[in-house]
Amino acid sequence: MRGKTLPIHGDGSNVRSYLYCEDVAEAFEVILHKGEVGHVYNIGTKKERRVIDVAKDICKLFSMDPETSIKFVENRPFNDQRYFLDDQKLKNLDGPSELYGKRG
Length: 104
Fold this sequence. Notes:
With 104 residues, the chain is an alpha+beta fold. The protein contains four helices and four strands, in the order E-E-H-E-H-H-E-H.
């Protein structure tokens, strides 16, 4: 919106899971009401996207040209190709209804 470039570390092929904030809030509610104190519950999704694809979608939303708006910068040395969280423990709390994750 400010006309600045979108920096992408590396070539943008890194894969990430993106969550809607409403889904995260609903997952927190499930943990608050059904979780056990001292336990760890990962909030995640099996749906993954490449960083470059998300950047191109952002450009499209703001009528920006991805060719001029996306700037590839040096990759961070600790930037993993993929992060994976096992969220099965949280899904087991909620049961078959799967309260969160319905948007993404």
